[in-house]
Write a structure and sequence with these properties.
Signal peptide: 1-16
Order of helices and strands: HHHHEEEEEEE
Number of helices: 4
Number of strands: 7
Distance between the termini: 50 Å
Number of domains: 1
Radius of gyration: 17 Å
Helix content: 25-40%
Shape: globular
Keywords: Signal
Structural class: alpha+beta
Strand content: 35-45%
Largest sheet: 5 strands, antiparallel
Strand order of the largest sheet: 3-4-5-6-7
């Protein structure tokens, strides 16, 4: 019985570690966003969905429930370089009814995931948020990593 419990803990620990530390085998691959239009479209879909709602109504709890701590952020806007390899691909999307600018930074992680960091800022109200998430091509969905204010 004791052996079974130890084995169960081992497998659960390995599973949890894999689920959180998905950047461990990061390598350069082709990225899922083939065109600027496609990336812009996904940004708009995000803005119109839960993420945009949470930002617009300052509902940080809506996003914080998805957080993990696989990478430490030194300060707002900078992620430790061993965590993610960022490529120079910046796209700006502005919502006509809410002129906040979403800055999208795409970084390659593995064959089936991409890391994306959104910075949403509003100079008038003097706030900024960063939301980090991955795009999983196989599941065709976004997985949130972290939300924080700058």
């Amino acid at each position: 019985m004791k052996t079974r419990i130890i084995l169960l803990c081992f497998f659960l620990g390995a599973y949890a570690h894999e689920g959180i530390n998905f950047t461990s085998d990061a390598r350069k691959t082709h990225h899922a966003f083939q065109t600027v239009e496609e990336l812009n479209h996904r940004a708009k879909v995000l803005w119109d969905g839960t993420l945009g709602y949470a930002i617009k109504y300052n509902n940080s709890e809506l996003i914080k429930q998805y957080l993990t701590e696989d990478c430490r952020v030194k300060h707002c806007g900078q992620v430790e370089k061993e965590c993610f390899e960022t490529i120079n691909k910046w796209i700006y999307y502005t919502d006509p009814q809410n002129p906040d600018v979403i800055k999208i930074d795409v970084a390659i992680e593995t064959d089936d995931r991409e890391f994306i960091r959104l910075t949403v800022s509003n100079e008038v109200d003097d706030y900024a948020y960063q939301i980090e998430f991955t795009w999983e091509k196989k599941k065709n969905q976004f997985s949130f990593i972290r939300f924080f204010e700058c």
